[in-house]
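Thread amino acids onto this structure.
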């Protein structure tokens, strides 16, 4: 439950409200924002009547929260969340942060050359994979602990913060011992709750920024669960990286962006810092710029981009890496939108609709292909096209499903009838 106090409520009145709630056996998180104070009630709130709280002259609103990850919810935090690392602030409103560096640390020379070129162009956070989880054995799986002194040298010579991926408790131990500033968890690791819990246990009691990539498959709850495990271990400087989702279909992207998933994550938890990884989404260096712009248009907080001093000779992901010079040129072209403009918010929503519409059309095309296969089967087995029982069952099930999703059953019925009509036409063509 969240209690939002009225603007300009005096501190003594806030304290009285906190004492009143604690007397009921609950804990209270107090978050004082610019405009108001928010009280987060933790514990069994079923014993509290919201209407009774509203009788207090200082209470503006009372909201129950049934969602997981309550303590990290923006509802408990009235102001934007900012991850601070030394003199760098990530997630600061109106700004975006760039993390750049090679996919893999390959040699001392390659790491230092790339880092110095990036630092000269204003990049403040250097990334490099020390350990590289690969889909298949035989590929370059990282230089290992041998590369950690190179990262320390980057810090010493350039003043940049350094970041790397960890996948096991042993990685955590070595990275912390080497003084790595920021850690991230890769997509393959996030997919495994047991692995995530082991990482969370290894990081318990450590105050270090952790960025969590989305899982390989489009599973939002699995993504949230990974964040929750780290949060429950006491970690508070948390953010996420949107790197796209694997698909068996060959498309323009290496990993489909499916923007609606990070958008939904931001809707649920607006305080979480979100980075976009255009390198892994696109899989081609020419796609880094347009994907980066899309991410900024969707109000992402930062970009994590793979940059190599000699991309074509890279030992991993050569096709998606750019030189520091190209990266600098790309960043100069990016437009940061003004969040204060209402029309821009409409524009962002329209882009979200475009993304969803593209997915709808793709799914419709896939459905029609299946209908064609069904039509071929019916022709081969001399079956009639129209199966009345199946049609009635489909309308009933889809109507109930739509209703459960807060969609008008009649609206769903009309859509399904139109789709069925087109499917029949497709099969009739096959029957000729």
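Threaded sequence (432 positions):
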């Amino acid at each position: 439950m969240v209690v939002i106090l009225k603007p300009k409520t005096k501190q003594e009145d806030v304290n009285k409200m906190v004492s009143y709630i604690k007397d009921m056996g609950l804990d209270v998180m107090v978050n004082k924002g610019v405009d108001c104070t928010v009280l987060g009630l933790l514990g069994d709130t079923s014993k509290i009547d919201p209407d009774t709280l509203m009788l207090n002259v200082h209470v503006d609103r009372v909201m129950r929260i049934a969602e997981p990850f309550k303590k990290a919810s923006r509802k408990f935090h009235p102001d934007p969340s900012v991850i601070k690392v030394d003199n760098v602030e990530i997630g600061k409103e109106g700004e975006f942060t760039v993390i750049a560096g090679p996919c893999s640390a390959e040699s001392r020379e390659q790491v230092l050359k790339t880092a110095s070129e990036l630092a000269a162009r204003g990049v403040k956070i250097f990334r490099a994979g020390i350990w590289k989880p690969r889909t298949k054995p035989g590929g370059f799986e990282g230089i290992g602990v041998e590369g950690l002194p190179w990262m320390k040298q980057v810090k010493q010579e350039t003043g940049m913060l350094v970041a790397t991926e960890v996948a096991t408790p042993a990685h955590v131990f070595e990275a912390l011992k080497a003084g790595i500033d920021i850690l991230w968890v890769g997509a393959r690791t996030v997919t495994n709750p047991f692995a995530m819990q082991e990482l969370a246990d290894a990081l318990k009691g450590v105050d270090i920024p952790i960025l969590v990539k989305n899982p390989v498959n489009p599973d939002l709850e699995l993504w949230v669960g990974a964040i929750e495990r780290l949060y429950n271990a006491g970690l508070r400087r948390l953010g996420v990286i949107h790197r796209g989702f694997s698909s068996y279909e060959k498309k323009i992207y290496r990993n489909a962006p499916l923007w609606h998933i990070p958008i939904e994550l931001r809707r649920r938890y607006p305080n979480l810092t979100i980075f976009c990884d255009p390198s892994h989404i696109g899989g081609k260096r020419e796609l880094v710029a347009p994907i980066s712009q899309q991410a900024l248009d969707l109000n992402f907080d930062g970009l994590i981009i793979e940059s190599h001093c000699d991309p074509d000779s890279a030992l991993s992901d050569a096709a998606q890496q750019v030189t520091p010079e190209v990266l600098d040129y790309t960043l100069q072209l990016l437009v940061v939108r003004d969040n204060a403009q209402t029309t821009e918010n409409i524009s962002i929503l329209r882009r979200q609709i475009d993304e969803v519409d593209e997915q709808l059309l793709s799914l419709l095309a896939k459905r029609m292909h299946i209908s064609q296969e069904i039509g071929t089967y019916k022709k081969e087995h001399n079956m009639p096209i129209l199966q009345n029982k199946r049609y009635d069952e489909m309308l009933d099930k889809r109507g109930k499903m739509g209703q459960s999703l807060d969609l008008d059953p009649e609206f769903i019925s009309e859509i399904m009838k139109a789709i069925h009509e087109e499917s029949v036409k497709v099969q009739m063509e096959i029957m000729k």
